[in-house]
Design a protein that fits this description.
The protein is α/β, with parallel strands linked by helices. It is globular and about 70 Å long. The structure holds adenosine-5'-triphosphate (ATP). The site of adenosine-5'-triphosphate has 14 residues, from helix 9. It catalyses: ATP + H2O = ADP + phosphate + H(+).
């Protein structure tokens, strides 16, 4: 489109070097002014193509508007829900490693006011909350959204606000008081008790905390409280032979209390961990009645809970018209739930059902758009504080003297108005481990402390410092020892057909990286680990991918076989000499899948930190990218470090560590603030 009168003339535009006309990253035929932003890698060719097409369809000829639309497309690609046009800093930030160092300051950015005005009156754009419904892009409060994400954000906002402002749910007060006393008896349980009291009365509880703060323990105890004190009226339990509801607790749709509970997590791995951990806590309850009430919960992926139907026009069986039957839905690892999936979950829930979102907002968010958990935790208060006496009493005990720990944190009382209960005390016993203090220092942005803890180099935390990020011989030798130890155990168990042993070995050690490609990327390290393990286990070179001992990661959702993107497993020997079967999930209850039924899989000798979310490994090796990498963020470092149960080894430069700690992810969305004009 070159009919515009709003763009500077091409001659006035400084053209960044180099421009290779055969480069597929460059948009062919884009107007010169817009192409400048593509050459500088501010927007990709694909972003521009979408914007130009929408411009043609709606008759929009202003290049400034088309640039804004291309930026909204880019925003979603990089995890934001929308783009703030006034936030030039983030617009200028390089998107990938190849864009690092490109001068974006001298690009012909439109003046902010004129740009906003042009966007607001464009035929392509619906301006304001009440703007027309049929435009592909929406402009609200200085933010530009692709319409689909606008709708999802609005839906989440309405559903969450509705839950936060609704009247209290009926509870048997005497039973609640007794159950809270029984299940949360100690002073140090006070925040956990508050979470349970809140979940009994309110329709949305957001339970957050770092590793080891007792989130899973609280979920298990909270379920016991709800089964006791929040039974549906007159419920006597399901009739004999009642059908089982997927994702529900126990072997039936509901427990004897009549309360139908679903446990879910975004990935199969996280669901398996949740199920195992909750059952473990329940088995240790003092009171056998509490144990019976909660039973042996089954956790499923969120996709399975909602009835994911690939390829159908209505993607989920449960939606606004076909609500989930459950009275309580608990979602773990909520930091990994992207905005669209959160919108689907909320719309699928009965308005009077309780939703408990559990997670650590300091972890990396989903690769898809949105950081819903972080937004919900840090919202300005939208509702008055809860008024139920049990919640007030629990809050008075739990929230004394608790100023915000971080500069931009909402205080605990305001957070409670938004349904948020933060667990702050680490209960995990391992006093000698430096992993949790390291995680705390990363989270608080204290780079000097992070480096001091890394350099102190105890049994649990190691730092192989290398100015260029390349591990030296000593580091390589150590990584090799861990990789070969775990790999050899994995292969031996797999060749012996021992699914439990193979899955346990899979969680022994993991190499983690930030990038998929490049010298510090997954490709290089996966090949390296594979070669080490092959050599150590005398595996004959073969092109056959179906060999016992190959660790796998699923790369798409396959609900028909119960596997989901990100699930990890391993091929183990089965039957005759050449037969293998894939095993996934909990080592103590492996799920077996024949290879011909497997969805697309890759080998998983090394993985990106993003992929590792929701999993834990006994030992973790993290290879940091160069300090200029745009993927090097505080959340990446925090997530990698907190995946380790017993030991973490970090390889990289001081500058890379500092860059990570200094850069919390900033994902644009409107959810934190009141709805703009
Ligand atoms: N109130 C409590 N009093 C004493 N110990 C507790 C309490 N809550 C939890 N713990 C103990 O702390 C440890 C960590 O608890 P839990 O696994 O529930 O934490 P988490 O937040 O779910 O951790 P992660 O996110 O790392 O899985 C467990 O050993 C648990 O028994």
């Amino acid at each position: 489109m070159s009919t515009t009168t709003h763009a500077p003339t091409p001659a006035a535009v400084p053209t960044p070097e180099p421009t290779d006309e055969g480069d597929p990253r460059l948009a062919v035929g884009a107007p010169a002014w817009l192409a400048t932003f593509n050459v500088a890698r501010v927007v990709s060719a694909a972003d521009l193509r979408v914007a130009l097409r929408l411009g043609r369809l709606t008759g929009e000829g202003d290049d400034r508007v088309l640039l804004a639309v291309a930026l909204a497309v880019r925003a979603v690609r990089s995890g934001s829900v929308c783009v703030r046009l006034a936030d030039l800093d983030s617009l200028r930030r390089p998107e990938d490693e190849e864009s690092v160092g490109v001068d974006t300051d001298h690009l012909p950015w439109p003046p902010a006011d004129e740009w906003a005005e042009a966007v607001a009156r464009s035929p392509l754009v619906a301006a304001g909350v009440d703007g027309p419904d049929d435009r592909p892009v929406r402009w609200v409060g200085g933010m530009l959204y692709l319409d689909r994400y606008w709708r999802d954000e609005l839906a989440v906002r309405h559903d969450v606000d509705g839950r936060l402002t609704a009247v209290d749910l009926p509870v048997d007060d005497a039973r609640l008081a007794a159950a809270l006393d029984r299940l949360f008896p100690a002073e140090q349980d006070s925040r956990q008790r508050l979470a349970a009291a809140h979940a009994a009365h309110r329709r949305l509880t957001v339970l957050t905390g770092g590793p080891g703060t007792g989130k899973t323990t609280t979920v298990a105890r909270l379920l016991a409280v709800l089964h006791d004190a929040a039974r549906p009226d007159g419920a006597q339990g399901p009739p004999p032979g009642a059908p089982r509801v997927p994702g529900s607790v126990g072997a039936h749709a509901s427990r004897p209390s009549g309360l139908r509970v679903a446990l879910a997590a975004p990935t199969g791995k996280a669901a398996a961990r949740l199920q195992e951990a909750v059952r473990d806590v329940v088995s240790r309850f003092d009171d056998p009645t509490d144990r019976d009430r909660v039973g042996a919960p089954i956790a499923s992926t969120l996709h399975r809970l909602l009835g994911f139907r690939p390829g159908s026009t209505t993607r989920f069986k449960h939606d606004a018209h076909h609500h989930l039957p459950h009275d309580v839905v608990v979602v773990d690892e909520t930091s990994m739930v992207a905005l669209p999936l959160m919108a689907r979950l909320l719309e699928a829930m009965r308005p009077d059902a309780r939703l408990v979102l559990v997670g650590d907002p300091d972890q990396l968010a989903s690769v898809e758009a949105g950081a819903v958990l972080g937004d919900l935790v840090n919202r300005s208060p939208v509702a008055p504080p809860p008024s139920a006496p049990a919640v007030l009493a629990a809050a008075d005990t739990a929230l004394v003297d608790a100023p915000p720990l971080l500069p931009d944190e909402v205080d605990d009382r305001s957070a409670l108005s938004n349904g948020v209960v933060r667990l702050r005390t680490v209960h995990r016993q391992d006093q000698d481990s430096e992993i949790l203090p390291l995680a705390a220092a990363i989270k608080a942005g204290r780079a000097d402390d992070v480096l001091a803890l890394l350099r102190a180099g105890d049994r649990t935390v190691q730092f192989f410092e290398s100015p260029d990020g390349e591990p030296d011989d000593a580091a390589v030798a150590e990584i090799r020892t861990d990789a070969v130890d775990a790999g050899a155990r994995l292969v031996a168990a797999a060749r012996a057909g021992d699914a439990t042993g193979a899955l346990a070995a899979l969680a022994e050690h993991r190499v983690m990286v930030a990038h998929r490609r490049g010298p510090a990327g997954r490709g290089r390290w996966a090949a390296q680990v594979e070669a080490w393990v092959e050599e150590a286990t005398d595996r004959p070179a073969t092109d056959n991918p179906w060999v016992a001992g190959r660790p796998l990661i699923v790369t798409t959702n396959a609900p028909d076989v119960g596997l989901y993107n990100g699930d990890t497993g391993v091929l183990v020997a089965d039957g005759d000499a050449s037969g293998v079967v894939a095993v996934f999930g909990d080592p103590d209850a492996p799920v077996r899948v024949r290879t011909h039924r497997l969805p697309p899989v890759e080998s998983v000798h090394a993985m990106t930190v993003h992929r590792a979310q929701g999993s834990q490994f006994r030992r973790v090796t993290l290879l940091l990218p160069p300090e200029t990498s745009p993927l090097l963020t505080r959340e990446l470092l925090y997530t990698a470090v907190t995946r380790a149960q017993e030991g973490v080894r970090v390889v990289g430069s001081e500058a890379a560590v500092r860059a990570a700690v200094a850069h919390p992810v900033r994902r644009a969305s409107g959810l934190r603030e009141p709805l703009g004009p």
